[in-house]
Fold:
Amino acid sequence: MARQARQWRTGAAGIAGVAVLGLTLTACGGAKVGDSSSEAGGSGSSGKCATFNLAVNPWVGYEANAAVLAYVAENDLGCKVVQKDLKEEIAWQGFGTGEVDAVVENWGHDDLKKKYITDQKTAVDAGPTGNEGLIGWYVPPWLAKEHPDITDWNNLNKYAAEFKTSESGGKGQLLDGDPSFVTNDESLVKNLKLDFKVVYAGSETALIQAFRKAEKNKEWMIGYFYEPQWFMSEVPLVKVKLPEYKEGCDADEEKIACDYPVYKLDKIVSKKFSESGSPAYDLVKNFTWTNDDQNTVAKYIAVDKMDPEAAAKKWVDANRDKVEAWIK
Amino acid sequence: MAVALEKTAPLAGVRQVRRRTVVAAILVAWLVLFVIFRGRQTLALAAADLTDLHRWFNDVNDSIGANRNSNPLFLYFFNEIRLVIDTLVTFVQELISQPSADRPVPQVGWLGVVGIAGYVSWAVGNWRVALLAVAGFTFMGLQGLWQESMDTLALILCAVFVALLFAIPIGVWAGLSDRVNRIVTPFLDFMQTMPTFVYLAPLTLFFLIGGASATIATAIYAAPPAIRITAHAIRSVPGTTVEAADSLGATRRQALLKVLLPMSKRTVVMGINQSIMAALAMVTIAALIDAPGLGKTVVQALQSLDVGTAFNAGLAIVVMAIVLDRVTTAASTREEAARRSGGRFLSWRRPLLAAGGVVTVVLVYMSHTYVWAAEFPGEGGIGTSIASAADTATTWAQDNLSGLTNAFRDGITNGLLNPFQSLLTDSPWWLVAAVLITLGAVLGGWRAGVTAAVCVGLLVGTGVWSDAMTTMASTLVATVLVMVLGVAMGVWMGRSLLVDRVLRPTLDAAQVMPPFVYLVPFLALFGATRFTAIVAAIVYAAPVAIKIIADGVRAVPETTVEAATSAGCNTWQTITKVQLPMARSALTLATNQGLIYVLSMVVVGGLVGAGALGYDVVAGFSQGQLYGKGLAAGLAIVLLGVMFDRITQAAARRTSA
Structure:
């Protein structure tokens, strides 16, 4: 009995001690949640703009578009912007399920356009972003400087042996990247009779790292790349000239022997969003800017490591006139 | 069965020799036929080419998408599931990670979460893991990743909860009935080896983008270990105990609730532990469908190749994994430990628990009320230092190790990988098929042979045979390297407790650190090659093999080792003649697990230059018209996994018999 009582007493003492400690801490607690002015939130001018679901595809150029659009929609239109990080295919799928309102940098994707715009009728085209997308074969700058004739495809076979790697089975290696992008490289190599083998790096990360390494160590390397791309401001890759693109030369995938077309990058929105009368839709529709504009914001994000929102603010503050034209 | 085993036992030695000769004969025959038939009927398929099966998969996928809004199955079944899980996720998020209703911060702030973590760890484990939990959670805050960590924790908690809701009943059922176990096993294999990339896109079609899809994707991967281990736990309750309960007149229900479950509790908790670890491995993948948290930080940082930031977030994942692992492990052994420490402590336990509870409630209240306890103070300066240190280390390694690593890569690629791969891919398919089936039968018995035959047949059916052979070559080379590393490190760890203590956290880290964080430096060292993919697989798979072998070596009775030493064996002889042979079953288990873990890295390999099946899966995830091919490639990975697993398991059973 006695032991039990002692136990109880120590227990009670412990609890009392804790309570005192708690009270002391509470007394000198400081600012309370909810009574500070720090949470300004919702700038009041919410108007008729409801929630704006903006897909963010996983590359920095897209992130730049999305950051600026989100910043303007939030601060000028008072929308509640929900940014969703998604791969392209899943973002388009979201048009149908109502989870995504807009995709703001689309590279071609005729298959998706057919599926969601023509067949399912859940998405509509919202015009070009003003950016022009180039796809093609690139070499690191040191190589273009030392062997200027390498930038013409006719001379590629001459150098094929230099591009050999452990992966290319005795031929020259042409490194391809993220499978999200359209590639005709296997047909091109075959139809241009090049002594090369397409090797799939499998991701943009792997491709950029390969180019970075090649430039730094002066290694031979040729690969699939595209612009606008933030990496170009770190290592300005040089494009290799392929046979010129002519309308329809890429009609038969098996027989392609010409360069990639210049992609007019565009915006796609969900049908519902386009009919909602939301000011955010007008913003998306009116949004256009140049490759330089995008590169600037992308550089803020990727090279200067700025927060996307801060990067957007910096650009918007410096380019108020352009923004005004979108929201008029 | 027992009779048959007894009969073969004396013949085992002879058999083993004969088996070796047969295997050698098969390999020689393969080489001869390879030279004759090289390059014919290899079933190669170009990157953009599809088969009818792939197109059919595409059509099915498209029609589901097109009919989503009118199909009653969606309206009344999937949507309801989504709603329930979404509500659960939102609730947990508003509790600890996301601003809720009219508050700018979650209901419970950092101080409250740290308090709860410490209290719960102490209550279910011991004070040591409680300290670890408090330190770990505080560290995540100091890294500047408090909210991200809590988002990840919320997702993990929900996913594991949902997974256990199904896993424990199914596991118990599979433990009680052999038939259920046989039916469930292939499904579990499927859930564990099917690459998540394959079902990620359809999942968002079924459950939309958001918390529900991320939770379900994670739960699918997290459930199988819990089911397997629960079933195993129920099975390993001694038969005599159950009979005793029966003879005392216990009903089936009573026997289950009063005997089987309490007796297997400890192992079931280990199942929960494995389930949590599996869920943590999904953090970066779930980020691809907009799951908030640390995974997103990793993925975004890597878009601009910001290794430092990615490493910082990866480190937070590792810290969380280590805390959760140690706490659940302590929970599974608590009762035993408490019993050993004697009753003195037990009498103190209840009042202390009550006091601790009161402290926790006070902390939670304060973190709900006051800003300083709600939002983690500071700018995350430690995180910035960690990031820049990681950057410096990466740059140094890239600048200084490049020449060395290239020679190593070329040696392995030209000496081992290329010949083996060309043997597999340039042989006619029927030749490789015949070799696989006969090897299966010789090593694992006729049952394994039949499994191999079925798997090979289905592999041909998937239409990605040639890619499957390329992947198989890399996988086997990686497994060999894993085992070399596993034996070397495992023996070292098994022989010295100190080494074990030092290395184990590193091994844990290698298993849960998101692969891409260390792959960026590897890419700089080895380029986008199959070898980089092999290295990634080794980093992920070797820890498992090392741990299993270390445990096996340690389990060799000390008296045996002492006897060997006193008989004049030197260290080398002790290891090769005594410890390794006696740990043979651990070695085969390590091979089996090493292979399965290597296979689970095939998709990651596809992202860094391995091509083949991994690339097919990634491409299927990225491009609509390749979806079907990606699915077929995913199935091929599952088939390779099942085939290897059954053959190695059967072989292990034979050698130990």
User: Anything to note?
Assistant: The radius of gyration of chain A is 27 Å.
